[in-house]
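Saturday, quiet lab. Running sequence design on the structure tokens for the scaffold JK sent over.
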């Protein structure tokens, strides 16, 4: 098993994702425990992409419940339709927020969070979990993040 993550120090985030994704794919290929895999993915994204906060919320009954993450402590439960995470869950689609202060109902787990991207992973058409990435900079996420993080969600869906 790969014990060490190779960090690409390029300033081009596409190059960073290009080197990180295959490593994550390798990392989760030999393990079927979801929490173990999500934990390593959160760590790989935190250190590989230098994200401010990155983590998962898992659908449990009628709520999103905080799962493996890296970064400051966060809200533990989010209802459907609430905040960015609850909106992505309800719509079952990626939500990209350039300025969290302009997103109605944004849930401020940390006042340092300025922009955010949330993606979903589904099984049989039902959202099972979401990935939330927060930045302490405005406008930090774009179509490159959306493209590559959606590829990551497909890998995760393969393990659900
Ligand atoms: N800001 C999110 C809540 C989760 S934290 O940012 C980790 C939201 O509005 O759903």
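Result came back. Writing it out in full:
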């Amino acid at each position: 098993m790969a014990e060490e993550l190779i960090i690409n120090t390029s300033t081009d985030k596409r190059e960073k994702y290009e080197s990180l994704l295959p490593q994550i794919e390798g990392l989760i290929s030999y393990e079927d425990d979801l929490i173990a895999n999500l934990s390593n993915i959160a760590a790989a994204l935190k250190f590989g992409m230098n994200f401010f906060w990155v983590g998962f919320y898992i659908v449990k009954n009628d709520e999103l419940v905080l799962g493996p993450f890296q970064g400051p402590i966060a809200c533990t439960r989010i209802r459907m339709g609430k905040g960015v995470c609850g909106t992505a869950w309800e719509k079952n689609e990626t939500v990209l927020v350039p300025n969290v202060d302009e997103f109605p109902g944004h849930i401020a787990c940390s006042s340092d969070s300025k922009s955010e991207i949330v993606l979903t992973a589904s099984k049989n058409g039902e959202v099972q979990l979401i990935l939330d990435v927060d930045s302490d900079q405005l406008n930090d996420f774009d179509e490159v993040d959306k493209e590559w993080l959606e590829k990551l969600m497909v890998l995760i869906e393969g393990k659900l």
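Notes for JK: The two ends are 21 Å apart (CA to CA). The longest helix spans residues 13-29. Ask whether to fix the surface positions before the next round.
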